[in-house]
Each structure stands twice: as structure tokens, then as C-alpha cells.
Amino acid sequence: MGIVLANIAIFGQPITAAMWPGGFIGADNDPGGWLWIAQFVLIDGKMRGLFTLLFGAGVMLFMEKAWARGATRWLQARRLGWLLVFGLLHYFLLWQGDILTLYALCGLIVLACVRWDVQTQIVAALIVYVAGALLWTALFYYFYLLAETPFGENPMLAETRAEIMTAKTVPVADAATEAALMRDGSWSANVAHRLSEHRFGWLTVLWQVAWETIPLMLLGMALYRAGLFDGRMDPRKQWRWGWGGLLAGALATLSIALWVQAKGFTYFTTMFAFMGPSMLTRLPMILGLAALLALWAPGAKGWLGERIAAAGRMAFSNYLGTSFVMLFVFSGWALDLFGRLDRGQLYFVALLSWAVMLAWSRPWLARFRYGPLEWLWRCLTYGRLFPLCR
Predict the structure, then answer these.
(1) Do residues 329 and 176 lie in contact, with contact meaning Cβ atoms separated by under 8 Å?
(2) Of 29, 87, 158, 367, which is least surrounded by CB within 10 A?
(3) What is the CA radius of gyration of the chain?
(4) How far is 53 from 33, CA to CA, in rounded Å?
(5) Residue 389 domain-assigned?
(6) Alpha helices, DSSP H, located in 31-152
(7) 368 DSSP β-pair partners
(8) What b/e string do you get for 172-205 counting C-beta neighbours within 10 Å, with b at 16 or more?
(9) Would the CA dihedral through 148, 151, 155, 157 be positive or negative?
């Protein structure tokens, strides 16, 4: 459900609008950028981080069950191989913002670490995560200095600055092309564009985000084994750790957002904020949210709690199902809403998608053992048909 909020801007607007308000077609109707700030602080990177953390925990849970049945890591590798197939189909046929290919490839790397002890997994994860965050922070701060400060006016840096400014025009121009295709082109024209212009875009995402994805998967494995998700941790410590991480990380992230606001939400300030220091400040928020949600989940009873739990059990079907629905909501050949909604209206669409998830997931699981895509993935992994109906 949080992933929908994170992705809604690039379902309904050019991909550059994901981090840069200037990427919106028309006005985003966000005076002062406060909606951008709220999303930057509370949503961006945190929902993907939670998803990644839980994916790592899921890899470990799967392996424990596989080992108990005498299977090996090859079964998990086969499972991730099929996830890669799903991801590539999603990327080319439905939506360019796919994350499943990233998870499949990073999962294969993390699979080599499942036998490490908990402490080794945590230390290795933190070293890689912090190293990646510092690397990207330094790189994108250099871009910001060159493009938007007097530092870049040095004659000796003129050629480099020109290259940086040219690099900005490439994604902006491509976003304009994709916007035109979404509004006026057919589904097949969009697929053809991805095949011709972005056939290796998923590998670019791998390089950009693997520095975060691999260590968070490792942390998810370690925290699962340490008892975060099954009540083996001291609940009082978990509560303090959760709120401490969430609040400290949120305040640090807010300071970055306010700096971007003071700079006028320019292209390179938003790029620096997204790809650089926020990677450091969101880590305690991700861990804090995981701790607090793990405490809350066992008591999530009643109408809403049970429906949220059901939506989570069908996360794979809901993730791909959302892309399928959004294709019809925003494509020019369907409801034709691409580029026509401002930021607030896009959030309304996201909340409607929540309502759909909550409405269908629990009734489905009352009748069937798995979500439809969870069932298909399981059958492909084991190479046999499992009963679907209860």
C-alpha cells in the first residue's frame, strides 16, 4: 500500500516528476512544496526500504523451510529466476518503474550470504549501505556544485559543467517522449519504445539502487533470525528503538527537504536530496517502521487489521495488479488521465487503489489458499500444480 503512494507520481506523470516538481505536466498545485516535503519525509525510500527488508526476511524464511525438506539454495535460485521473468514482463509490457527485476538479481547475490551468522550479516550490510550512501552523496553533491553554484562557473570546469547540464536534458527529453506516447500512443507503441530505447534500463536501476537493496535484504535476513518479526525481542526495547529511529530519521530527512525548499526545488537539488544524504537519514526510519509494525501486527484484528494483513499476504498480486489497473487509468487509449492530475489528485487515485486492495484481498483468501500470482509463482518454483481452492 505504501509502494502505491511512492509510485503514484510516475504512474500519472513523467518519470522525472518522481523527485522533481518541475517534471510535472502542468502545475502540481502544491504551494510551497509541502506535499512534496511530506512525501519525501514519510514515503520516498521508506516504503521501498520496508519492502526490501521484508523480501530479505522472506528469502531466509523460504530457505529455512527448504532446508527442513532437504532442498538446497538451488530451489531459491529457481524461485528468483522466475521472479526475474515476472519482472521483465512487468517492465516491458506494463510499467517502466518495475522493481522485481532488481529484487531477483539482488536476491541471487544475497543468496550466497544465507549461511553467514547474524552479526556478520548486519556488519556487512551496514558497511555496504553506508559506503554506498557516502559515494552517492559525494557524487551528486559534486553535480549540484557544478550545475547550481558559483563553483561551477570556474572556467576550468566549463566543459564538465556543460556535460552535466546536457545530461539533465536527456531524461527530460525522454520523459516528454514517453508522456506523448502515454497520451496519444497505443499500448504497443509504448512497449516498442521501451524495447528500443530502454531495453537495458532495468540494469541501470540495478547499478543505482543495488547499494541500498543488497544490504537491506541482508538486514532483513538478520532481523528475521534475531526475532524481530516473531516476538522474540524485548517489546519495550523494540518500541523505544522503533520510535527513536522513526523520529530521528524523520527530523534529519525534514532538514534536507527544507533545504531543497529553500533552494527552490531545482533539478539538481532534488536529485542530490533523493540520491544522496536521504539514503543515510531514511535507514533509521526503515528500521523503526519495521520494528513498530512488527509490534502492531499481532494485534491487528478487526475489519481493517484483517484486511490489511490479507493485502500483505497478496503483495505480489497487488503490486502487479496495481500496474495493470494504472495502465487503464492513465493511458490515452483508456481513461486518458496521464499528465492531467496534480499531486493531490494523484494521492486520491492512490487511496482508491488502497480501497480496491482492501476490498478484494480478504474475500479472495477466504476462498483460495494463495493470491493468484503467488500461486502461479509457487507452482513455477516447484514445477508442479498446488491446490488453489480451500
Answers:
(1) no
(2) 367
(3) 21
(4) 30
(5) no
(6) 34-42, 46-68, 73-89, 100-110, 118-148
(7) 389
(8) eebbeebbbbbbebebeebeebbeeeeeebbeeb
(9) negative
Residue 390 falls inside a structural domain: no
Could you tell me which of 35, 86, 12 has the C-alpha nearest to residue 376? 86
- CA 110 to centroid of chain Cα atoms: 18
In a domain, 201, yes or no: yes
CA dist 390 and 387 (Å) reads 8
User: What would the pLDDT profile of 358-367 be if each residue is shown by its tens digit?
Assistant: 999 999 999 9
Query: Which cell is 177 given?
Result: 517522449
Whether residue 354 contacts residue 322, with contact meaning beta carbons closer than 8 Å, is answered with: no
Question: For 40, phi and psi rounded to 5 degrees?
Answer: -60, -40
Task: For residue range 128-149, list pLDDT tens digits in order.
Answer: 999 999 999 999 999 999 999 9
Domain limits for position 304: 2-382
Output the nine-digit C-alpha cell for 354: 488502497
Q: How far apart are CA 20 and CA 58, in angstroms?
A: 33
| CB of 76 closer than 8 Å to CB of 111 | yes
Give percent of the chain with pLDDT exceeding 70.
Answer: 100
Q: Domain for residue 293, yes or no?
A: yes
What pLDDT, on a 0 to 100 scale, did the predictor assign at position 41? 98
With 0-12 CB in 10 A as exposed, 13-18 as middle and 19+ as buried, what is 159? exposed
What does the alpha-carbon distance between residue 338 and residue 62 come to, in Å, rounded to a whole number?
39
Count of structural domains, the chain: 1
Alpha helices (H) along 25-72? 34-42, 46-68
| Contact between residue 283 and residue 247 where contact means Cβ atoms under 8 Å apart | no
pTM for this entry: 0.94
On the 0-12 / 13-18 / 19+ scale of CB atoms within 10 A, 218 is buried
End-to-end, the C-alpha distance of the chain in Å comes to 26
